[in-house]
Amino acid sequence: MFREILISPAFTRLVKMNAYTFNKDSMVLQFLQNTGIQAILDMDGVTEVSVNQPGHIWYEGRDGWQVVEAPEANFTNLEHLATAMCVYSALPYTLGPDHPIASVVLPGGERGQIIVPPATEAGSIVLTIRKPSLTRFTIDDYIASGGFSRASIAEAQGVTMTDRQHYLYELSRGGPEQIGQFLKEAVKDRLNFLIVGGTGSGKTTVAKAIADIFPPDRRYATIEDVHEMTLPNHPNHIHLFFKKGGVSAREIIEACMRLKPDHIFLAELRGDEAWSYLEALNTGHEGSITTIHANNTYASFSRLASIVKQSEVGLTLDMDLVMTTIKKSIDVILFFNKTYLTEIYFDPAVKNKLLSESI
Fold first, then answer.
1. Bond before 118 cis per omega within 30 degrees
2. How far apart are CA 33 and CA 79, in angstroms?
3. Is the alpha carbon torsion for 204, 206, 207, 209 positive or negative?
4. Which residues form a coiled coil (predicted)?
5. Disulfide check for 127: which of 51, 81, 188, 284 has CB 3.0–4.6 Å away?
6. Model-level pTM?
7. What share of the chain is helix, strand, coil (3-state, %, to 5)?
8. Please, where are the H alpha helices in the chain?
């Protein structure tokens, strides 16, 4: 029963009572130590600490993402830590199935994001803590360290394609082998994929195939209503879930942004989450995969625009702005019919033109 409701109300009351009896800071710090997370936070160069599943702690430092085994970061200890952080942050609700997402603050000034079932996998607690930098640089420090040595002038985008874009453009118009190479190169360039088709057309299957091409050493988040997008080749991943009548896809996307994924794979665009997803693509999360129901590649533009306009935020947006944002955000559109790829959209010149006009 304790695991089913995730965070026991009795435990929450106990923590709240102790928070007033003892020092709040000490209580949270004790739970951080019990899970092994504090030891990681104390390491030099660490900027982010994440738990995707009990037993392992991921952290990001100078050499990218690393993972350590941490048996002390078990479900119970993580559960206690999550509750303590919510109480310390004075949240007005109890973390659990009715409120599975929480943004918290730690005594050391770190900010954290917590996601629990049913918004993630059963038996898991997703936790990310961002460590604030205590280093302060002067302009002279940047000069001396070479921080400005790689700067170049941002030339205005033209309506023509770069050599790299032209190379991909030609690949996309080749035979099966060239198309396969195009998909690999598009992943390498962090292009955004929209996979289009009807029910049973093979959208999810090809989405998995493309996901398998992505580098294994990055951090990934999948967002679905039904769990299908498995990532067996990418160990640093989290699976997040939305549900009708529960946590919405839009809320999941907004919470996901605080978990610092390098890439977001969204099962299907169909509601209020569409605009939030497009915003995510333009705020450092390029290189994504999502799907939509439409009759062909070009129809997917109007279909996606219609979905955005039907949302609450979409009612306040001009249709031209919506359509322009879509065309600047989506790079590759693949249309599947009965599991066969029958149409490809890839026209970087259009995107370049829109980007140049927005300057």
1. yes
2. 14
3. positive
4. none
5. 51
6. 0.83
7. 40, 20, 40
8. 9-21, 24-35, 37-41, 75-88, 139-145, 163-172, 176-188, 203-211, 249-256, 273-281, 297-310, 319-329, 348-357
For the record, the structure tokens of 169 come out as: 């453009």
Domains and CATH numbers, the chain: 9-130 (3.30.450.90), 163-357 (3.40.50.300)
Q: How many residues in the chain?
A: 359
Do 28 and 85 touch, CB atoms closer than 8 A? yes
The pLDDT of residue 18 is 55
In angstroms, rounded to a whole number, what is the distance separating the alpha carbons of residues 73 and 139?
Answer: 41
Residues 6 or more apart whose CB falls under 8 angstroms from that of 22 comprise: none
The tokens 């800071």 sit on which residue? Answer: 25
pLDDT in tens, 77-108: 999 999 999 988 888 888 999 999 999 989 88
Backbone angles phi, psi at 121, to 5 degrees: -65, 145
Cβ contact 115:254 at 8 Å: no
CA–CA gap between residue 359 and residue 355 (Å, rounded): 7
Q: How far is CA 359 from the centre of its chain?
A: 27
